[in-house]
Structure formats: C-alpha cells, structure tokens
C-alpha cells in the first residue's frame, strides 16, 4: 500500500494534468459551451470510462512490464516529456488559443455524447503519458503489491480528474465569457498552463528510474 506522501504527490501531478490543456479538456469545454453543462457532464462520463480502461490496463501488467524493462521505461518517459513540451508550446506559441475559446460543435444525443467522450479519452496521448510514464515513478515494490498500488493511484487520478473536469464543464461558459472580455487574463491562463506542462516535462526528464 503506498504511503500518504506518495499518494499526495501523485494527486498533485494528476491535478496539474487536469488543469493543463489537452484533447479531453478542449472537447469537454467546447461541448459545454455549445450544448450546455449537462452535455459536458454526459461526455465526461465517457471520458471517465476511458480512464478506467487505462487504469485496469496499467494495473493488469503494463506498469509491471515497463518497470521490468529499463529501456522501455526510459523511451516512454522521454516520449511523454516531449509530448508535454509540445502541449506547452501550443499553449504559449504566438497565435495560440486558450482551450476556453469557443469552438462550434453540432448538438448530439446522450449516447453519442458519451461515446465521443470515451473515444476522446482513449485516443488522448496525455492519459497514456500519465499511466505509462508518470505512474510507474510512484510505485515502490517495497511498499507491497504493485497491482494494489496501481489501483490506488489509478483511483486517485480518476477521482481528481472527474471532479476537476466536472467543475470545468459546469463553469466553462462563465470562464470563456470572462476570458473573452479580458484578453490579458486569457494570456496569463495560457502561459500558466504552458509553464505547468513544461515543469511536468522537466520532472519526467530529470527523474531517475525508481
């Protein structure tokens, strides 16, 4: 069983990932703005199911394999860091857009909203990076079964992500209106997200294999 220090540290990383732009955030915000918060929450249900898929995949052996093969771990860690740097650049580059910028989407029914959320989550490289590159750094075989630790960290990530994204989906319209009327704060938001992403990438590069 992981100790509270490791769980708290992983929770902070998971929260940082929730608050940085990525396919899930952009889709949920766009859906909430175009079709209302309820549509955003239905889509979030699909996104959460995608998180469960990744968690169970990691817990059933992917994480153990990565930890057992140093080269595979290093390749995934560096690939994850490069992807985070790419997201950071997209957040701060000249002409970049905030994820809260309004994007027009057609209105869909509940079933399609759920499935689109699921597919967006499954095809989201940021989620794969979290489970394959970040999660193994917090697993310590000396603390007990790797399977149990993977489930604990995965459940922590899902709880934080669902809660954070639900708040974002419910308040997306108000935040988008606020940022649209205040370009300065929209720029601050982009740079803050870019800085967090770059910081996570640096941590992944500098962190040694546990």
Structure description:
- The chain has helices at 4-18, 23-35, 37-68, 70-92, 110-122, 125-134, 146-181, 183-206.
- The chain is mainly alpha-helical and 210 residues long.
- Helix 2 packs across helix 7, helix 3 runs parallel beside helix 6 and helix 4 (70-92) packs antiparallel against helix 8.
- The relative contact order is 0.23.
- The mean pLDDT is 76.
Give a concise summary.
With 210 residues, the chain is mostly helical.
The DSSP helix count reads: 8
Please state the CA-atom Rg, rounded to the nearest Å.
17 Å
Determine the N-to-C terminus distance: 16 Å
Low-confidence stretches: none
- Which term fits the overall shape? globular
The biggest beta sheet is recorded as: none
Binned, the helix content reads over 70%
- Structural class, from helix and strand content? mainly alpha
- Classify the beta-strand content into a percent band: under 5%
The tally of strands reads: 0
What average pLDDT do the residues reach? 76
